[in-house]
Amino acid sequence: MNWYAALSRKERTTFHSALVGWVLDAFDFMVFTFVVTSLMALWGLGKGQIGLLSTVSLFFSAFGGWLGGILADRYGRVRVLQWVVLWFSVFTFLIGCAQNVGQLYALRALQGLGFGGEWAVGAVLIGEIVRPEHRGKTVGVVQSGWALGWGLAAVLYTIVYSVLPQALAWRAMFWVGILPALLVFYLRRHVDEPESFRRARRAADAPSFLRIFSPRMLGTTLGTALMCTGVQGGYYAIATWIPAFLRLERHLSVIGTGSYLAVLIVGSFIGYASGGYLSDRLGRRGNMLLFALLSAVSTIVYTKLPFTNAQMLYLGFPLGFCASGIFGGIGAHLTELFPAALRANGQSFAYNFGRGIGALFPAAVGAMSVKTGLGNAICLLAVAANALVFVTVLFLPETRGRRLETIDAADEAGEPRHERLQRGV
């Protein structure tokens, strides 16, 4: 953590706000996974309805993420971050007030809009503030906040369900989700807009959000979108189905216990942080290639080799590490591939396109498993997803150490004259 001591006060303040935001965002989102059994018991929901409640939130988070990026390029990173934090906090609280399944679907969808926007805007903010040599590590540690939020949700679940009846406990879990709204006061007082955004806005009005699909940007946009599809498709295929596979087909009782979950969360935390660190050491592409390979190998190991309960308890660590490590370096890489005028828009489109398509992978695993078996279906799709990451990364440029000012200047110089005239430049 020597790099942390080298950060300026402005960099630290932004880092703290982004980390806390991501912790609380993850906390609000993961609460649902802990109350699923209560909803099934109290409301009589089936597995299909529970799956749809998960999918609808992810699906709308993809739209919310891209919309958040578009608004952040137009109105500012800090301002839009405040909006999305308030949004997902309020709708998380309201989920705890739902009176029927229809309200639950609608509120989960609205919560997803804010959830998607928080990552997109927060990752751009921290990437633009922190200097190039520490950008990967800082964004990686911010990403590790997901594991911390997950852990907080697990701790709260243990406490709330021990003191409240089930019918009230599941609602209380969501009511606590209003707390992230307090982060807005910190953001308003301590975090400033990045200079790169101010400079881009002084130069001209925000360009059309469709310019990420212009001939000059199309290759980057499509390449990063495919990369993010592979990253998230592989993650969802593993995270959704590996526990069920090990419990139902391998008959391992340790899966789903508190000790296994704790080991998995610790592995995820270290994986996120390590991915960010390695992206500064090995390069953005080197880190992505390494973790794509590790994720593919770990999937093959988990689906093809038999394990005992004792072995699986400890193997939760490498599962969490490999599945999460690839996310540690992705934020910095995306930030360095798009110019300031399009950065939040392009980055959020790529990441959330991947989230939207990746959310289909669990359903594809379920469909394939009818003929191939669950283990083979997980293995085939997860390995294919990581192969997609491996191939697309090879076609994207290495950006480690790239100064954002250089990217922005090159974009202004290379922008077609008719577009500059339309924007009054």
Explain this structure.
With 425 residues, the chain is mainly α. It has one domain: Up-down Bundle (Growth Hormone, Chain: A). The chain contains 19 helices and no strands. The protein has helices at 2-6, 9-43, 47-75, 77-95, 101-129, 132-163, 166-175, 183-190, 195-203, 215-248, 258-281, 284-304, 309-328, 330-335, 343-358, 361-372, 374-394, 404-414, 417-422. α5 (101-129) crosses α15 (343-358). The longest helix is centred in the first third of the chain and has 35 residues, at 9-43. The protein starts with a helix and ends with a helix. The model is unreliable at 416-425 (pLDDT under 50).
CATH class: Mainly Alpha
**Structural class label:** mainly alpha
| Tally of individual domains | 1
CATH homologous superfamily descriptor:
MFS general substrate transporter like domains
The CATH architecture can be named as Up-down Bundle
> Kindly, what is the distance between the CA atoms of the first and last residues, rounded to a whole number of angstroms?
43 Å
> How many DSSP H or I helices?
19
The residue ranges in which pLDDT falls below 50 over 5 or more consecutive positions are 416-425
| Element-level helix/strand string | HHHHHHHHHHHHHHHHHHH
The counted number of beta strands is 0
Helical proportion, percent range: over 70%
Q: Beta-sheet strand percentage?
A: under 5%
Radius of gyration: 21 Å
| Main beta sheet strand tally, sense and closure | none
Mean pLDDT: 83
Look up the CATH topology: Growth Hormone, Chain: A
